[in-house]
Amino acid sequence: MKKKFNALTPAMTFILLFSIVSLLSDMTHEGAASIRGAYLSLLGASAATIGFVSGLGELAGYSLRLLFGRFADKTKRYWLITIVGYVIDVLAVPALALSGEHGWIFASSLIVIERIGKAIKKPAKSTLMSFAATQEGVGKSFAIAELIDQLGAFLGPVMLYVTLLFKQSGSLQERYAFSLGLLIIPAAATILMLFVTKRKFPNPEHFEPEPKQLVPFRINRKFLLYLGGISLFAFGFIDYSLILMHVSRTHAALSSGLSEATSFVNSGTLPLLYAGAMLIDAAAAMIFGLMYDKKGMRALILSTALSAPFALLVFGTSGNAALLVGIAMWGIGMGAQETILKAAVAGIVPKASRATGYGIFEFVFGVFWFLGSWLLGALYDVSIPVMIAVSVSAQVLAIPLYYLSSRTAE
Questions:
Q1: Residue 8, in any domain of the structure
Q2: What's the number of domains the chain is made of?
Q3: DSSP 8-state assignment for residue 93
Q4: Which end of the chain is more exposed for a tag (fewer CB within 10 A), N or C?
Protein backbone atom coordinates (compact mmCIF):
# COMPACT_ATOMS: atom_id res chain seq x y z
CA MET A 1 0.00 0.00 0.00
CA LYS A 2 2.86 2.34 0.87
CA LYS A 3 4.64 1.51 -2.36
CA LYS A 4 1.53 2.38 -4.34
CA PHE A 5 1.24 5.76 -2.60
CA ASN A 6 4.91 6.52 -3.28
CA ALA A 7 4.31 5.88 -6.98
CA LEU A 8 2.38 9.16 -7.10
CA THR A 9 4.94 11.66 -8.39
CA PRO A 10 5.22 15.21 -7.02
CA ALA A 11 4.07 16.54 -10.41
CA MET A 12 0.93 14.40 -10.33
CA THR A 13 0.30 15.34 -6.68
CA PHE A 14 0.40 18.99 -7.70
CA ILE A 15 -1.99 18.33 -10.60
CA LEU A 16 -4.43 16.57 -8.27
CA LEU A 17 -4.30 19.29 -5.61
CA PHE A 18 -4.77 22.05 -8.16
CA SER A 19 -7.62 20.04 -9.68
CA ILE A 20 -9.37 20.05 -6.29
CA VAL A 21 -9.06 23.84 -6.28
CA SER A 22 -10.75 23.84 -9.70
CA LEU A 23 -13.40 21.42 -8.43
CA LEU A 24 -14.39 23.78 -5.62
CA SER A 25 -14.25 26.77 -7.95
CA ASP A 26 -16.47 25.02 -10.48
CA MET A 27 -18.96 24.11 -7.76
CA THR A 28 -19.27 27.86 -7.29
CA HIS A 29 -19.54 29.32 -10.77
CA GLU A 30 -21.00 26.32 -12.59
CA GLY A 31 -23.60 26.02 -9.85
CA ALA A 32 -24.60 29.58 -10.68
CA ALA A 33 -24.38 28.90 -14.42
CA SER A 34 -27.03 26.19 -14.08
CA ILE A 35 -29.69 28.83 -13.36
CA ARG A 36 -27.99 32.04 -14.50
CA GLY A 37 -29.87 32.43 -17.78
CA ALA A 38 -33.23 31.79 -16.14
CA TYR A 39 -32.29 34.10 -13.23
CA LEU A 40 -31.38 36.95 -15.59
CA SER A 41 -34.65 36.41 -17.43
CA LEU A 42 -36.59 36.66 -14.15
CA LEU A 43 -34.73 39.89 -13.37
CA GLY A 44 -35.96 41.38 -16.64
CA ALA A 45 -33.23 40.63 -19.21
CA SER A 46 -34.18 39.79 -22.81
CA ALA A 47 -32.67 37.00 -24.94
CA ALA A 48 -30.50 39.52 -26.81
CA THR A 49 -29.38 41.01 -23.49
CA ILE A 50 -28.48 37.59 -22.07
CA GLY A 51 -26.53 36.77 -25.22
CA PHE A 52 -24.78 40.16 -25.08
CA VAL A 53 -23.92 39.88 -21.37
CA SER A 54 -22.65 36.32 -21.80
CA GLY A 55 -20.56 37.40 -24.77
CA LEU A 56 -19.31 40.57 -23.07
CA GLY A 57 -18.29 38.55 -20.03
CA GLU A 58 -16.39 36.14 -22.23
CA LEU A 59 -14.85 39.02 -24.20
CA ALA A 60 -13.58 40.66 -21.00
CA GLY A 61 -12.61 37.29 -19.55
CA TYR A 62 -10.63 36.24 -22.60
CA SER A 63 -9.27 39.50 -24.05
CA LEU A 64 -7.69 40.54 -20.76
CA ARG A 65 -5.87 37.21 -20.67
CA LEU A 66 -3.53 38.55 -23.34
CA LEU A 67 -2.50 41.34 -20.96
CA PHE A 68 -2.24 39.14 -17.87
CA GLY A 69 -0.48 36.36 -19.79
CA ARG A 70 2.27 38.75 -20.84
CA PHE A 71 2.37 40.18 -17.30
CA ALA A 72 2.76 36.68 -15.83
CA ASP A 73 5.63 35.81 -18.19
CA LYS A 74 7.35 39.12 -17.46
CA THR A 75 7.05 39.02 -13.66
CA LYS A 76 7.04 35.22 -13.17
CA ARG A 77 4.65 35.85 -10.25
CA TYR A 78 2.39 33.00 -11.34
CA TRP A 79 1.07 32.17 -7.87
CA LEU A 80 0.24 35.76 -6.85
CA ILE A 81 -1.62 36.44 -10.09
CA THR A 82 -3.51 33.14 -9.81
CA ILE A 83 -4.62 33.84 -6.23
CA VAL A 84 -5.83 37.40 -6.97
CA GLY A 85 -7.83 36.13 -9.94
CA TYR A 86 -9.42 33.30 -8.00
CA VAL A 87 -10.54 35.59 -5.16
CA ILE A 88 -12.30 37.98 -7.56
CA ASP A 89 -13.74 35.09 -9.59
CA VAL A 90 -15.35 33.05 -6.83
CA LEU A 91 -16.57 35.89 -4.60
CA ALA A 92 -18.46 37.61 -7.44
CA VAL A 93 -20.71 34.57 -7.82
CA PRO A 94 -22.55 34.42 -4.46
CA ALA A 95 -22.89 38.22 -4.67
CA LEU A 96 -25.50 37.57 -7.41
CA ALA A 97 -27.89 36.79 -4.55
CA LEU A 98 -27.89 40.51 -3.72
CA SER A 99 -29.62 41.40 -7.01
CA GLY A 100 -32.99 42.88 -6.20
CA GLU A 101 -36.16 42.93 -8.28
CA HIS A 102 -35.40 44.07 -11.85
CA GLY A 103 -31.72 43.96 -10.88
CA TRP A 104 -30.49 42.48 -14.14
CA ILE A 105 -27.96 45.30 -14.64
CA PHE A 106 -26.34 44.62 -11.24
CA ALA A 107 -26.34 40.88 -11.91
CA SER A 108 -24.89 41.38 -15.39
CA SER A 109 -22.09 43.52 -13.92
CA LEU A 110 -21.18 40.75 -11.47
CA ILE A 111 -21.08 38.23 -14.31
CA VAL A 112 -18.57 40.44 -16.13
CA ILE A 113 -16.53 40.94 -12.90
CA GLU A 114 -16.42 37.17 -12.42
CA ARG A 115 -15.02 36.79 -15.91
CA ILE A 116 -12.41 39.48 -15.28
CA GLY A 117 -11.27 37.50 -12.25
CA LYS A 118 -11.02 34.46 -14.47
CA ALA A 119 -8.99 36.50 -16.98
CA ILE A 120 -6.49 37.45 -14.29
CA LYS A 121 -5.93 33.90 -13.10
CA LYS A 122 -6.28 31.78 -16.22
CA PRO A 123 -2.97 32.21 -18.13
CA ALA A 124 -0.93 31.95 -14.93
CA LYS A 125 -2.95 28.97 -13.70
CA SER A 126 -2.73 27.12 -17.05
CA THR A 127 1.00 27.79 -17.13
CA LEU A 128 1.50 26.41 -13.61
CA MET A 129 -0.43 23.30 -14.64
CA SER A 130 1.55 22.94 -17.86
CA PHE A 131 4.86 22.81 -15.96
CA ALA A 132 3.72 19.64 -14.20
CA ALA A 133 1.76 18.34 -17.21
CA THR A 134 4.88 18.12 -19.38
CA GLN A 135 6.19 15.50 -16.95
CA GLU A 136 3.06 13.35 -17.02
CA GLY A 137 1.76 13.81 -20.59
CA VAL A 138 -0.16 16.99 -21.43
CA GLY A 139 -3.28 15.28 -22.74
CA LYS A 140 -3.48 12.91 -19.79
CA SER A 141 -2.74 15.66 -17.24
CA PHE A 142 -5.29 18.14 -18.53
CA ALA A 143 -7.79 15.29 -18.90
CA ILE A 144 -7.40 14.32 -15.22
CA ALA A 145 -7.68 17.96 -14.22
CA GLU A 146 -10.82 18.42 -16.32
CA LEU A 147 -12.35 15.19 -14.96
CA ILE A 148 -11.95 16.35 -11.36
CA ASP A 149 -12.90 19.90 -12.30
CA GLN A 150 -16.13 18.71 -13.87
CA LEU A 151 -17.02 16.74 -10.76
CA GLY A 152 -17.33 20.16 -9.16
CA ALA A 153 -19.31 21.37 -12.15
CA PHE A 154 -21.69 18.46 -11.47
CA LEU A 155 -21.89 18.92 -7.71
CA GLY A 156 -22.57 22.66 -7.94
CA PRO A 157 -25.81 22.35 -9.94
CA VAL A 158 -26.87 19.36 -7.80
CA MET A 159 -26.34 21.50 -4.70
CA LEU A 160 -28.65 24.13 -6.20
CA TYR A 161 -31.19 21.48 -7.20
CA VAL A 162 -31.37 20.12 -3.64
CA THR A 163 -31.63 23.65 -2.26
CA LEU A 164 -34.48 24.51 -4.60
CA LEU A 165 -36.16 21.21 -3.76
CA PHE A 166 -36.33 22.06 -0.06
CA LYS A 167 -36.66 25.84 -0.40
CA GLN A 168 -40.29 26.06 -1.52
CA SER A 169 -41.26 29.35 0.11
CA GLY A 170 -41.05 32.68 -1.71
CA SER A 171 -41.09 33.53 -5.40
CA LEU A 172 -38.93 31.70 -7.92
CA GLN A 173 -36.60 34.71 -8.04
CA GLU A 174 -36.21 34.66 -4.25
CA ARG A 175 -35.55 30.91 -4.28
CA TYR A 176 -32.88 31.34 -6.95
CA ALA A 177 -31.27 34.20 -4.98
CA PHE A 178 -31.16 32.09 -1.80
CA SER A 179 -29.51 29.22 -3.69
CA LEU A 180 -26.90 31.53 -5.21
CA GLY A 181 -26.09 32.92 -1.74
CA LEU A 182 -25.21 29.44 -0.48
CA LEU A 183 -22.42 29.26 -3.04
CA ILE A 184 -20.28 31.30 -0.63
CA ILE A 185 -19.44 27.92 0.98
CA PRO A 186 -17.53 26.38 -1.97
CA ALA A 187 -16.16 29.86 -2.80
CA ALA A 188 -14.46 30.11 0.59
CA ALA A 189 -13.24 26.50 0.34
CA THR A 190 -11.66 27.31 -3.05
CA ILE A 191 -9.54 30.10 -1.57
CA LEU A 192 -8.49 27.95 1.40
CA MET A 193 -7.44 25.01 -0.82
CA LEU A 194 -5.54 27.35 -3.11
CA PHE A 195 -3.32 28.48 -0.23
CA VAL A 196 -2.80 24.87 0.87
CA THR A 197 -1.59 23.96 -2.63
CA LYS A 198 0.73 26.97 -2.81
CA ARG A 199 2.25 26.14 0.55
CA LYS A 200 3.05 22.58 -0.55
CA PHE A 201 4.29 23.54 -4.04
CA PRO A 202 5.63 27.12 -3.98
CA ASN A 203 7.68 26.66 -7.20
CA PRO A 204 5.86 24.43 -9.73
CA GLU A 205 8.04 25.82 -12.56
CA HIS A 206 10.79 23.49 -11.30
CA PHE A 207 8.82 20.49 -12.62
CA GLU A 208 9.74 21.34 -16.21
CA PRO A 209 13.47 21.53 -17.00
CA GLU A 210 14.73 24.75 -18.52
CA PRO A 211 15.40 24.40 -22.27
CA LYS A 212 19.05 24.14 -23.29
CA GLN A 213 18.48 26.94 -25.76
CA LEU A 214 16.03 29.81 -25.22
CA VAL A 215 13.57 29.66 -28.10
CA PRO A 216 11.70 32.94 -28.71
CA PHE A 217 7.96 32.61 -29.19
CA ARG A 218 6.61 33.52 -32.59
CA ILE A 219 3.18 33.14 -34.13
CA ASN A 220 3.87 30.65 -36.92
CA ARG A 221 1.56 29.18 -39.56
CA LYS A 222 0.74 26.15 -37.41
CA PHE A 223 -0.42 28.38 -34.54
CA LEU A 224 -2.34 30.68 -36.92
CA LEU A 225 -4.28 27.75 -38.41
CA TYR A 226 -5.00 26.52 -34.90
CA LEU A 227 -6.24 29.96 -33.86
CA GLY A 228 -8.48 30.04 -36.95
CA GLY A 229 -10.04 26.71 -35.97
CA ILE A 230 -10.70 27.63 -32.35
CA SER A 231 -12.11 31.01 -33.48
CA LEU A 232 -14.77 29.31 -35.61
CA PHE A 233 -15.53 26.88 -32.82
CA ALA A 234 -15.91 29.71 -30.28
CA PHE A 235 -18.10 31.71 -32.66
CA GLY A 236 -20.52 28.84 -33.20
CA PHE A 237 -20.58 27.22 -29.76
CA ILE A 238 -23.71 28.61 -28.08
CA ASP A 239 -23.32 29.73 -24.47
CA TYR A 240 -25.29 27.65 -21.96
CA SER A 241 -27.07 30.75 -20.62
CA LEU A 242 -28.95 31.03 -23.92
CA ILE A 243 -29.67 27.29 -23.93
CA LEU A 244 -31.01 27.53 -20.38
CA MET A 245 -33.22 30.49 -21.22
CA HIS A 246 -34.63 28.63 -24.21
CA VAL A 247 -35.27 25.50 -22.16
CA SER A 248 -36.94 27.49 -19.37
CA ARG A 249 -39.27 29.10 -21.92
CA THR A 250 -40.12 26.17 -24.17
CA HIS A 251 -39.58 22.98 -22.14
CA ALA A 252 -40.01 23.87 -18.50
CA ALA A 253 -43.63 25.05 -18.76
CA LEU A 254 -42.77 28.08 -16.65
CA SER A 255 -45.27 30.31 -18.41
CA SER A 256 -47.58 27.86 -20.14
CA GLY A 257 -50.02 27.42 -17.27
CA LEU A 258 -49.18 23.73 -16.99
CA SER A 259 -48.29 22.12 -13.69
CA GLU A 260 -44.54 21.61 -13.38
CA ALA A 261 -45.26 18.11 -12.11
CA THR A 262 -46.55 17.20 -15.61
CA SER A 263 -43.28 18.18 -17.28
CA PHE A 264 -40.08 16.16 -17.06
CA VAL A 265 -38.13 19.40 -17.45
CA ASN A 266 -39.22 22.13 -15.05
CA SER A 267 -37.79 25.02 -13.02
CA GLY A 268 -36.66 22.63 -10.28
CA THR A 269 -34.84 20.23 -12.59
CA LEU A 270 -33.01 22.86 -14.67
CA PRO A 271 -29.85 22.56 -12.53
CA LEU A 272 -29.87 18.78 -13.09
CA LEU A 273 -29.74 19.28 -16.86
CA TYR A 274 -26.56 21.27 -16.45
CA ALA A 275 -25.18 18.75 -13.96
CA GLY A 276 -25.76 16.00 -16.50
CA ALA A 277 -23.97 18.02 -19.17
CA MET A 278 -21.02 18.41 -16.79
CA LEU A 279 -20.83 14.64 -16.26
CA ILE A 280 -20.69 14.15 -20.03
CA ASP A 281 -18.07 16.92 -20.13
CA ALA A 282 -15.94 15.04 -17.58
CA ALA A 283 -16.16 11.72 -19.43
CA ALA A 284 -15.37 13.36 -22.77
CA ALA A 285 -12.41 15.18 -21.22
CA MET A 286 -10.85 11.91 -20.09
CA ILE A 287 -11.51 10.04 -23.33
CA PHE A 288 -10.34 12.74 -25.72
CA GLY A 289 -7.47 13.88 -23.49
CA LEU A 290 -5.96 10.40 -23.53
CA MET A 291 -6.70 10.18 -27.26
CA TYR A 292 -4.81 13.43 -27.84
CA ASP A 293 -1.56 12.00 -26.41
CA LYS A 294 -1.81 9.18 -28.97
CA LYS A 295 -3.60 10.74 -31.96
CA GLY A 296 -2.88 14.45 -31.64
CA MET A 297 -5.23 16.85 -33.40
CA ARG A 298 -7.39 14.01 -34.72
CA ALA A 299 -8.95 13.83 -31.25
CA LEU A 300 -10.05 17.46 -31.60
CA ILE A 301 -11.45 16.83 -35.07
CA LEU A 302 -13.51 13.86 -33.87
CA SER A 303 -14.89 15.67 -30.81
CA THR A 304 -15.91 18.67 -32.91
CA ALA A 305 -17.71 16.46 -35.43
CA LEU A 306 -19.61 14.74 -32.62
CA SER A 307 -20.70 17.93 -30.87
CA ALA A 308 -21.32 20.35 -33.75
CA PRO A 309 -25.02 19.46 -34.38
CA PHE A 310 -26.13 20.03 -30.75
CA ALA A 311 -27.99 23.28 -31.58
CA LEU A 312 -30.23 21.43 -34.03
CA LEU A 313 -31.48 19.10 -31.30
CA VAL A 314 -31.67 21.69 -28.50
CA PHE A 315 -33.29 24.54 -30.43
CA GLY A 316 -34.81 22.78 -33.44
CA THR A 317 -36.98 20.19 -31.68
CA SER A 318 -39.53 20.21 -28.89
CA GLY A 319 -39.12 16.71 -27.45
CA ASN A 320 -37.41 16.06 -24.12
CA ALA A 321 -35.42 13.12 -25.55
CA ALA A 322 -33.91 15.26 -28.31
CA LEU A 323 -33.16 17.98 -25.78
CA LEU A 324 -31.24 15.55 -23.55
CA VAL A 325 -29.22 14.20 -26.48
CA GLY A 326 -28.46 17.74 -27.64
CA ILE A 327 -27.27 18.82 -24.20
CA ALA A 328 -25.13 15.67 -23.98
CA MET A 329 -23.52 16.62 -27.32
CA TRP A 330 -22.91 20.11 -25.93
CA GLY A 331 -21.18 18.46 -22.96
CA ILE A 332 -18.96 16.41 -25.29
CA GLY A 333 -17.89 19.58 -27.04
CA MET A 334 -17.12 21.39 -23.80
CA GLY A 335 -15.17 18.52 -22.26
CA ALA A 336 -13.07 17.72 -25.28
CA GLN A 337 -12.33 21.33 -26.16
CA GLU A 338 -11.44 22.30 -22.57
CA THR A 339 -8.92 19.46 -22.42
CA ILE A 340 -7.42 19.38 -25.90
CA LEU A 341 -7.29 23.12 -26.52
CA LYS A 342 -5.09 23.64 -23.45
CA ALA A 343 -2.95 20.60 -24.21
CA ALA A 344 -2.33 21.75 -27.79
CA VAL A 345 -1.06 25.16 -26.67
CA ALA A 346 1.37 23.51 -24.24
CA GLY A 347 2.73 21.51 -27.17
CA ILE A 348 3.11 24.50 -29.52
CA VAL A 349 4.43 27.25 -27.22
CA PRO A 350 7.85 27.04 -25.46
CA LYS A 351 8.08 27.20 -21.66
CA ALA A 352 9.45 30.73 -21.31
CA SER A 353 6.57 32.26 -23.29
CA ARG A 354 3.77 29.86 -22.44
CA ALA A 355 1.62 32.29 -20.43
CA THR A 356 1.83 34.70 -23.38
CA GLY A 357 0.83 31.89 -25.73
CA TYR A 358 -2.14 31.03 -23.54
CA GLY A 359 -3.02 34.71 -23.40
CA ILE A 360 -3.01 35.08 -27.20
CA PHE A 361 -5.00 31.88 -27.66
CA GLU A 362 -7.61 32.86 -25.07
CA PHE A 363 -7.84 36.46 -26.33
CA VAL A 364 -8.70 35.26 -29.83
CA PHE A 365 -11.08 32.65 -28.42
CA GLY A 366 -12.84 35.28 -26.29
CA VAL A 367 -13.29 37.82 -29.08
CA PHE A 368 -15.01 35.27 -31.29
CA TRP A 369 -17.01 33.85 -28.37
CA PHE A 370 -18.31 37.38 -27.72
CA LEU A 371 -19.17 38.02 -31.36
CA GLY A 372 -20.84 34.64 -31.69
CA SER A 373 -22.80 34.92 -28.44
CA TRP A 374 -24.04 38.40 -29.36
CA LEU A 375 -25.04 37.41 -32.91
CA LEU A 376 -26.60 34.09 -31.94
CA GLY A 377 -28.51 35.73 -29.07
CA ALA A 378 -29.87 38.36 -31.46
CA LEU A 379 -30.72 35.70 -34.08
CA TYR A 380 -32.67 33.76 -31.44
CA ASP A 381 -35.17 36.65 -31.29
CA VAL A 382 -35.33 36.91 -35.09
CA SER A 383 -34.97 33.40 -36.55
CA ILE A 384 -34.07 30.28 -34.61
CA PRO A 385 -33.44 28.21 -37.80
CA VAL A 386 -30.88 30.79 -38.98
CA MET A 387 -29.24 30.75 -35.54
CA ILE A 388 -28.97 26.95 -35.71
CA ALA A 389 -27.47 27.08 -39.20
CA VAL A 390 -24.83 29.63 -38.19
CA SER A 391 -23.91 27.67 -35.05
CA VAL A 392 -23.50 24.30 -36.77
CA SER A 393 -21.75 25.70 -39.86
CA ALA A 394 -19.12 27.62 -37.88
CA GLN A 395 -18.17 24.56 -35.85
CA VAL A 396 -18.00 22.27 -38.89
CA LEU A 397 -15.79 24.80 -40.73
CA ALA A 398 -13.30 24.61 -37.84
CA ILE A 399 -12.51 20.97 -38.68
CA PRO A 400 -10.42 21.54 -41.86
CA LEU A 401 -8.37 24.20 -40.05
CA TYR A 402 -7.60 21.77 -37.23
CA TYR A 403 -6.52 19.24 -39.85
CA LEU A 404 -4.29 21.73 -41.69
CA SER A 405 -2.71 22.81 -38.40
CA SER A 406 -1.86 19.20 -37.56
CA ARG A 407 -0.23 18.75 -40.98
CA THR A 408 1.82 21.95 -40.84
CA ALA A 409 5.36 22.00 -39.50
CA GLU A 410 6.30 24.66 -36.98
A1: no
A2: 1
A3: T
A4: N
